[in-house]
Amino acid sequence: MLALLSAALLCALLVPLPDSPAAQNSWAEGAPDSWAKLDLSALQGSGVGFVCPMDRDVSSKTPGFCPRCGMKLVAGIPDSKEYPVEITAAPPAIEPGKNIQLTFRIEDPKTHSPVRDFEIVHEKLYHLFVVSQDLSFFTHTHPELQPNATFRLNLRFPKSGMYRVLSDFYPKGGTPQLAVNTLIASGGEFEGEPEPATLAPDLAPQRAENINVELVTEPAQPLAGRKTTMLFRMKPNDGIELYLGAWAHMLAASSDLIDMIHSHPIQAIDHGGEYKELQFNMLFPRTGIYRVWVQSQRKGVVNTVAFNVPVGE
Questions:
Q1: How far apart are CA 42 and CA 28, in angstroms?
Q2: Three-class SS of residue 190?
């Protein structure tokens, strides 16, 4: 959804991506502005007083916590607003391979002042995903809150080119946010406009640090605009632990990095000692090949695997 794109001028320039009516950066459970589409009168009529700010289909008549994601249920339906994210770098010109200090300033859309209060989402105040233009580099990390209400992170960009930066946070009194910025790492190898990554389908089982992961999709051929059930089978099924408050975290990115989708499993099913099956419900917005990263934890070790999922018409 283009409304969720936040632009920031960092280092030398900001590279605009092609406009597309299908472009989105969304929660798999629904974009933050989906609050506006909910039928509040119907909820009130049903006696529902509390809803999950992340999983909009989870509601309750009494206070509590979401059984799916663990978020505290909120009373009523908060107004949906976008909170712009401004990123600055030190030094201003990002050089590949060098340590860069990134500072994130989140602006209240009503007062235009820095946001100072945040809700904890999956054990952290701020989740940050950084993906390189060729989709070979991926990181999920957590900037730290500073006394001046900014967040700060040190990061090394491995090569020259464009990077998409996805900020995931929840301003207190607002709604969960996904904000996307574009950063450029300069270097002799990067010239001209960014080109979409060239991906080949790859659904083969993946081996991470101490776990094997298989992917099964229903239907076998995912289709754009239609629900796809994604089943990740984690083997062996011993010592698998919650990672940042969820059984797994998934990020899916289109080859042109216009669509980026952050999601968590809706359920986990044990199949004896053979494997644990994590179910995600996905709606791929367009045709093409999507790079899908899944992170989970086993015996204290964080495992990251990636699949290239082809999506048809």
A1: 23
A2: coil
Note if the pTM is more than 0.70.
yes
Count: domains in the chain: 2
Give the contacts of 9 (CB within 8 A, at least 6 positions apart): none
Gap between the Cα atoms of 125 and 51, Å rounded:
20
CA–CA separation, 11 and 34 (whole Å)? 34
235 & 292 share domain: yes
Give pLDDT tens digits for 128-181: 999 999 999 999 999 999 999 999 999 999 999 999 999 999 999 888 899 999
Residue 194 belongs to a domain:
no
CA distances from 109 to 84, 160, 215, 227 (A): 7, 33, 40, 33
Q: What is the CATH number of the domain that holds 87?
A: 2.60.40.10
In contact, 74 and 168? CB cutoff 8 Å:
no
57 assigned to some structural domain = no
Give the pair of three-digit tokens for residue 168.
């995931």
Query: 235: domain CATH number?
Result: 2.60.40.1930
Task: Compute how many other C-beta atoms are within 10 angstroms of the C-beta atom of residue 120.
Answer: 13
